[in-house]
User: What shape does this take?
Amino acid sequence: MLKSFFPILTWGRRYDRQTLGSDLVAAVIVTIMLIPQSLAYALLAGLPPEVGLYASILPLVAYAIFGTSSALAVGPVAVVSLMTAAAIGRLAAQGTADYTSAAIVLALLSGGMLALMGLFRLGFIANFLSHPVISGFITASGIIIATSQIGGLLGIKSDGHAMPELLASIFANIGRINYYTLGIGLLSLALLLWIRLDLRNWLERFGLGKGVAKVIVRSGPVFVIFLTMALSVTFDLGGKGVALVGDVPQGLPVLAVPHFSLDLVEALALPALIISIVGFVESVSVAQTLAAKRRERIEPNQELIALGAANIAAGIGGGYPVTGGFARSVVNFDAGAATPAAGAFTAIGIAGATLLLTPFLAVLPKATLSATIVIAVLTLVDFGMLKRAWSYSRTDFAAVAVTIAGTLLLGVEVGIVLGVGTSILVFLYRSSKPHAAIVGRVPGTEHYRNVKRHAVETIPGILSIRVDESLYFANARYLEDLIYGQVASNPEVTDVVLMCSAINAIDMSALESLESIRLQLSDMGVRLHLSEVKGPVMDRLIGTEFLDRLEGRVHLSQHHAMQAATASRQDNEPPEAALAAKL
Amino acid sequence: MLKSFFPILTWGRRYDRQTLGSDLVAAVIVTIMLIPQSLAYALLAGLPPEVGLYASILPLVAYAIFGTSSALAVGPVAVVSLMTAAAIGRLAAQGTADYTSAAIVLALLSGGMLALMGLFRLGFIANFLSHPVISGFITASGIIIATSQIGGLLGIKSDGHAMPELLASIFANIGRINYYTLGIGLLSLALLLWIRLDLRNWLERFGLGKGVAKVIVRSGPVFVIFLTMALSVTFDLGGKGVALVGDVPQGLPVLAVPHFSLDLVEALALPALIISIVGFVESVSVAQTLAAKRRERIEPNQELIALGAANIAAGIGGGYPVTGGFARSVVNFDAGAATPAAGAFTAIGIAGATLLLTPFLAVLPKATLSATIVIAVLTLVDFGMLKRAWSYSRTDFAAVAVTIAGTLLLGVEVGIVLGVGTSILVFLYRSSKPHAAIVGRVPGTEHYRNVKRHAVETIPGILSIRVDESLYFANARYLEDLIYGQVASNPEVTDVVLMCSAINAIDMSALESLESIRLQLSDMGVRLHLSEVKGPVMDRLIGTEFLDRLEGRVHLSQHHAMQAATASRQDNEPPEAALAAKL
Assistant: This one.
């Protein structure tokens, strides 16, 4: 029991010098990668840069205690930062103390919700975020995030958390470009792109080992930060109108729980829930992908508890909502992280950086951070999903398209809710108009298939219908129309066999429809039979009036049903005998 | 085309003297029944009594033109009256002109929505109101309606559209009972109950024919109205504090469309939608039940148009939302109504009654109308549904129970939305954790069933799993865990056959899960086969990477899959050969 809540008790016991070595190497590399990302994502969330660093300390320790993934690297991520900005941007102005404390409350709320969902084992809720929806959402978020940084790269003001406002504010201010800012922005973009695409080959051509080259590439963004800080000081860019990060409080965060009002909690509850679910889905899918590569398993409900603890820790430690990041976790995995302890070592690294870096951050141009964000989110954009969904099914395409359009035009929260709503509605709509087939026997077998797709044998006077859906309230009336229509247009029919192999449940509404079908058929002198009724469905039907009054029989298999119906037609067997023989 | 929008063009052509006779008899009986009900339901809706009469004139004519049911009697009904009171009670005070015009706007809005739903053939939306939900809703509404009339029977004030407020206001005013009102109320209740339960036997014992006795019983409530009016005048009950109907404008309604604000439309849009759907479901189920008895068919989408036209007519003619009433339609049917023209004749009857009655209504005690309402709604209450649902399935029971509790405690709109929401959530939850079975062969057949329920034969090394649900986003991850778990606990397994007879669809999320299952199994040296994949599902799968990379085969039947897997195990057939033979 204790061990399932504290996985650290299991892996901690096996911890040895070799694991420590692997974890330390991974921690160093992730720390180097995380420093510029923490600063940049805090900026994206509209928060002071140190908040990003704070969000990369305690949450990592909390995840190390509760988490089940050895590779997951927790911290600020792009999508959740955008969602944070959208949620708290409505309640307070950026740069105010209220804004920062709203972010902290959001982290606490989201942490509390995640932990409760984990304790009550509600992880399945996340399954309702379908893959097309989450993929469309991340693509749209990536576009919004990249667009939101255009202002920072041009040195103009831009506002908004959805495309229409963002584009409007960019165009409104397009005349006020600061060319020094633009220069720093383009330089940063170019360097970061070159580092990502080309530096490694270049280093290897110069004879560096693969491992060393990899580490240098990953510390590239930190060098860009140092370079632009140096340029900023040398050319007094601040004096030339380039936006700099400005003074940042020194030292580590003071642990505290902000005092907050019920109004604030109410206003943030829904955004916190959406952030929790989106963050969980992103995190758990990275964790699962990486775990599968090592034949490990992660425990989704425990992951909820771990992410909950991480977010509560983020709130207490002055940070904002965090989750497992994709790129960062892959790096952590590649670098050899063997246990969640790697995350705790990363936290120590970030704490050290916070102490060392904060005095110098004042001169860092914000445009460098904007460039870091743009390069990081470009990998999120995947329009291929639209094409794959279109070619696979129009309903999946509808869900992706609605999610992307909704997120771009109306913002992250509305977008994801529309996407989930669409995918559920499409599922319900489809199941309310089920596919059905008249079936016949595949010659030489006991197998029965759709007469329209296979060359099958049917028996005149016996109509076999296979309905391809569970029978429930939404399709109950449809079923009545279907069977009534088929029988009315085939006057020679004396027996209807409803093949139930694809009927996984029958609810009360459908049971009433079946009874009314039985009555209608009975009035027309037609007997209704069932075949291949599944165990769980049969358990329900036993003892119902419908079954007691059924003139026909319930047959184990469709083949048996057809044999019996044929025999009974030949013998002109009265319904009473059939009733007596019923199951 | 024209004929499908105007069914009157079809039945009007066949209209003859005999049909006219039947329709006229039915119209007289329904008119007599409708007069007290119109007055009473208007009171229930918080409207002046003449509004009830107005709602029983033009809407009936409109339905006669557009309707497809020969027996449906349209007009004010109890549940919709309660819903009207709840919707407009928030916006205006009873007795004001604003209140009445809000009711008219509600009728127009609801009429417009119904007509649009009919034109766009959206009748299937009503299928999402499951039978347990609508039944629970009507039971709870009946209880609320009966309780809301206690104040009228005691002569005290009572307010509210849900039980807590209603009971609170009754207890707050319980000391102010007017005993004259109570006397009239109890007398009316006793007479109405006696008329309903006993009068017919009594008349027949006195030698009256069955037909005459029936007509007298049905006009009973009108006699009670005349009797209490006479008592009211004789004993000057108005002067003794008994609430009377009071002055009513004479004559027929003036046709008009009220001028209304956008705010009003916005506030009434959601209630109008709920009233439309509930009214439609009630109406169409009565119409279908009665149509089936005469081997007729009604056209649900045309019914939407007809009810839409009826409600627009109600709005223009000074009425409030109407729909087809259950008891009234049964009476219409019994009395021999042969075409929708019977409704038009009823409208003439009510118009005549409006001209004749209005001068006398001033002296009618409201307690008589309260008694009429109580007697009428007692038949709506059906707690048996709770018991039937409990014994059939816990999920259906949950839907009924939530609907009843929600409606009683939180009101009609919240109640029905909670009920529909619960039934949909329960359906989604169930399909997110599908039933699955390991299957084996029923000896001597080609039929495969659950090893836990049947004595079946299995083949060592071959695991056949039947998943009883369409594979979609909500259960995709569950499927992965299921198959991975089964294979991991059976190390001797070399082949997994996924029997797809109950899989009616595979969406993109599930396809990705199948691919990841295939990969996992492949890593473990296990081949994945599919069997009994339905045509529509196979159409999707063809051309996907999953199918192209599948090591196993797709077999027409489970039996064939087992034969092939056995043969291939014996031959030690390499996966490449299986790939070549696929499909």
User: Anything to note?
Assistant: Chain A has 27 helices and eight strands. Residues 573-583 of chain A have pLDDT under 50 and may be disordered. Chain A touches chain B through 67 residues (CB under 8 Å).
